[in-house]
Amino acid sequence: MRSRRLRNIVIELTSLLDVVMILIFAVMINYSDVAAENREKYEQAQEQLDLARSELAEGRTEDLLKEIAAAEGRAEAYEYLDNLVVIINVSLVNKGDNKYRVLSYGIGAERGYSSKWISRNDETAFNKELIQLKDYLYKNISEAEDDALIYIVFSYDSQTINGDDCDLLNEILKEKTELGDNVFFCENDTREG
């Protein structure tokens, strides 16, 4: 009787040991993949370091310093341009067979704000979104550098957007150009081109 009970315990532990072994192998495989990736990165960095050392040994320090300065200059130039030209993208899209509308906006390629689907019949919710848009525009225009050029780009599909919504947003966005001589408004009808 006692030996049968011990045999049952061993059998139950065998399946548990299988699972533990599978997990151990999975961890080992993952670790080897990570180690291989890190080894490749290390070798690439080592090659670049060896190249830089050889150029220094050959007396090409001026060339090396010029390359470093050019790289830093390009990075600073891109950063300067990001501060000099500010693009605020605004879009209005209709969803669900024109029963809902979604208002989105942000600066450049950065992910900005996107409203939830607002029912065509819910003017109160849409007006709240428009107030948030106005606040966003005012904040970003006033925080921009004095010599920055600010472009407000309104994108829409003229065949799917409601004409009244389009006119209302055009009016709001054009109004913001009065905040300064450096603020410009552009329309982008995505259907046209």
Structural description of this entry:
The chain folds into two domains: 2-59; 86-192, 2-Layer Sandwich (Nucleotidyltransferase, domain 5), CATH 3.30.420. The chain is 59% helix and 20% strand. The chain is built from four helices and six strands. The protein has helices at residues 2-57, 61-84, 123-143, 163-175, and strands spanning 85-95, 100-107, 113-114, 118-119, 149-156, 183-189. Strands 1, 2, 3, 4, 5 and 6 form a six-stranded mixed sheet that branches. The longest helix has 56 residues, at 2-57. The chain starts with a helix and ends with a strand.
Quick synopsis:
The protein folds into two domains: about 1-60; about 85-190, Nucleotidyltransferase, domain 5 (2-Layer Sandwich).
